[in-house]
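Dear colleague,

Thank you for sharing your sequence with our group. We've completed the structure prediction you requested, and as agreed, I am returning the results in plain text so they can be pasted directly into your records. Please verify that the sequence below matches your submission; if there's any discrepancy, let me know and we will rerun it promptly.
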Amino acid sequence: MNDTPGPGLSPERVNRGLRLSIVEGAFATGHLALAGGMFLTGLALFLGVFFLTSTLASPFYLAHLLTNLDFSFGAVGIYAAIGGTTGILFQLFWGWHIDRFGPRAATVISFAAVGVMPLLWLFATPAFRLPIWLDGVCNGLFWTGANLGLINMLFAIGDNPVRKESYFAIFGVVIGLATFIASLAGGVIAQALSGLRVELFGRSFGNYHLLFLISGLARFACLPLLLRVQERRSRKVIRTVQVLGAFALNRLNYGKGLLLYAIRARTRG
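Please find the predicted structure tokens below.
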């Protein structure tokens, strides 16, 4: 069987046609996905700005642990294990939360809490590691909620089955491209400020601390963009926080009652 192209289909023309097909398919996919204005002006814009500004410090957390906080590789492993374990434990909680209140509330609450995490690193010292362990817990707790919330918001917004795959494709491209650019920019900033030393409150702050501060403040500054994204079945964020606060207070009161009962029983015995 002869597999060579015919006279009008040279290998160069075949390759050119394939390249054009790929490019046209990519543009068509992007146009189809972005045709839903809510995604373009809301969630995609938030994701792009958030990951472009708030991940400037991402490449330097590990370096800061090892070089400035004197963490051993074993301690770094424990820190990572804390985040992973916490994430697994709270998967069911966030799933229940999203089923009851909708994905928007979970996403907003999680991203608001994520903004605090880089700021914790400003207070950590080799002799005071508690902020790092708290960050490990928050990492598993709130990034789990943020990821589950985003995925479910995509399902809710991309209600057109023809466009659903395109929404997820754009979702990945926006996050990946923004994180790539932010990592490069963070490296340039860290290198340019490598000699920075600021003495404040008896502490010495350097270039890594500046990146952590920028990252935390940028995360809070991006929240209004997320609040613009509406999803039909989600409750208001304030109402969700009130319900969760009442639930947590009820559980605390229940636990306090059990503790007091145990103390009284032990005293009587």
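Summary note from our side: The chain has two domains: 26-234, 236-269.

Kind regards,
the structure core
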